Amino acid sequence: MRFNYGGSQALAMRSAQGAKGDVFASADERWMQEAATRGLLAGDATTFARNRLVVIVPRTNPGRIRSLKDLARRGLKIVLGADAVPVGRYSRIALRQLGADPALGPDYAARVLANVVSEEETVKAVVGKVQLGEADAGIVYASDVTPAVARFVRAIEIPAGANVIATYPIAVLRGSAQPEDARAFVALVTSPEGQRVLAKWKFLPADAQH
Amino acid sequence: MTARAPRNGIGFVAVLGIAATVLLAAFVALPFVALLLRVSPAQMAARLGEPVVLDALRLSLVTSGAATAIVVLLGTPVAWLLATREFPGKRVLEVLLDLPMVLPPTVAGFALLMAFGRMGLAGQALGAFGVTLPFTTVGVIVAQVFMAVPFFVGPARAGFSTVDGKLLDAAATLRASETFTFFRVALPLAAPALLAGAAMSGARALGEFGATITFAGNLPGSTQTMPLAVYVALQSDLDTAVLLSVLLIVMAFVLLLGLRSAPRGWLWNRDRART
Q1: For the segment A39-54, what is each residue's pLDDT rounded down to a tens digit?
Q2: Which of A79, A124, A132, A153 to mutate to test the interface with B (most CBs of B within 10 A)?
Q3: What are the residue boundaries of the structural domains of chain B, listed by start?
Q4: CATH architecture label of B52-81+93-274
């Protein structure tokens, strides 16, 4: 089995341009939908995992960020995923939803976004810049805070009411040279065994409620 | 064996040369042609005024221009030294200056962060003076300089090495100082090599992506150069991505062709240097 990792959008674009593959797993329903619209899928996509967003700050905490409210303080260096990257889109939605909290205020998202110094092309790039202490904070998936990463960063939870739960669909590609094996792989990922492995890495189960 | 094969005949090697040229040229040209065919001139014109395109264009010209100037200004004396002196550790220095070429650009970006980032080895000292490089336009230039250095120093050094030693000796016997010899003899004679090196490093800076996005980040107007804008657009808006790519290609083509075909005696008067 060979894995080809990349931003969902990049993988979808590459598949559309004729890159070969058996299974497409996306961190965003939008790009799976895009793949379906372009006729790249054999059959329907199924959800195999869900993920929530967390704010991460370096353990050295150069921006002295202790709560979500601190993110709106002027002069901070915040990195987010670019708007076209799922994590970036979700981050912006979550920030807007946090504005409903009177303690944060309706202009919360605008004030946080004014602190954005870089729009990264993958969520791993967000993790990297926070991990190295170059950025004061970033927004990533809970699953990105792996044990190795957690040595350098601290996560600040985003309340479930304002959080965006990413849904991860998986599907067999029409161009697959071994559709049987491809379907077996999808079945394994969605099986209780596969879900246990995903849960270990902080993914929410596929059937989690919002 | 006294007779030499005529150079203008169609021998085996010539046929091989022509075949390889056609193959290689087609291989390199085809992706560019594919990009160019993708957009009509009308589409190009319509999108040329978009802020994201103009911002990226302006930023790319400013940063790659500055990076090339820095590389040439610092690289020329280094190349002269390497070409004219023997000193301990010279080989190591040469290899060091070539190293950025083999480093994957993203790795280079991380290394730059660890060196010049605000938590980096030298970056903490810079921070004491209020200088931070990541997420700034100056950071973009730093990343480009790092990646472009080998493309100038190599050719420039080779250019200085081919300057006829007898001319330098002659200048010395006429009691010319090294400074005078460097500016009036060596520099004019090596000018074509220096220009070629400047063009290569300029093109490298113009196309720089991985080190830039990793070290300086990606924000329209301050760090999003054309290659970064292409990459971001590629993920959502293929037409803008193609337009930006075509612009980038045209700029690089003009730059490389222009500096390569610079007339003899342009910039320095070579003929005067000879006499």
Answers
A1: 899 988 999 999 999 9
A2: A132
A3: 52-81+93-274
A4: Orthogonal Bundle (1.10)
